[in-house]
């Protein structure tokens, strides 16, 4: 994915590109979204929301070991990128549900495919690690 010359020149000149917030985002907007989608918690949120919408506490329990602050930041980032929809219902106590948008569903399906591949190929990865570690220990390194 190429970044337009105009966007790069404007960012290099110190001018914000249209719809961006910093020079890094202006120069490589797709890289920033890729970071959000493939972040430690972003991956898990997207995969979990593929099944159904979740309330914040349900999502936190389903993912496990994520702080409230980190989950909040991840959800806000994914919402800003148009991948997650936040539905706040005006009831007492307040109820907020999170679900995937169409764009988010596309991204989540891609991420889930990578997760499935990783699970399916874990034996091969373990063998490669073992071979690498043995080669390092013996002072030789396989190319």
What does this 3D model show about the protein?
With 143 residues, this protein is mainly α. Helix content is 64%, strand content 10%. A hairpin with a 5-residue loop joins strand 2 and strand 3. Helix 4 crosses helix 7. The protein starts with a helix and ends in a 6-residue tail after the last helix.
Largest sheet entry: 3 strands, antiparallel
Number of β-strand runs = 3
Q: How many helix segments?
A: 8
The secondary-structure class comes to mainly alpha
Which descriptor suits the 3D outline? elongated
Short structural summary:
Helices cover 64% and strands 10% of the residues. It is mostly helical. The two termini are 31 Å apart.
What order do the helices and strands come in, and which of them pair?
Layout: H1 5-12, H2 23-27, H3 29-38, H4 40-51, E1 54-55, H5 56-63, H6 68-80, E2 84-89, E3 95-100, H7 102-120, H8 122-137
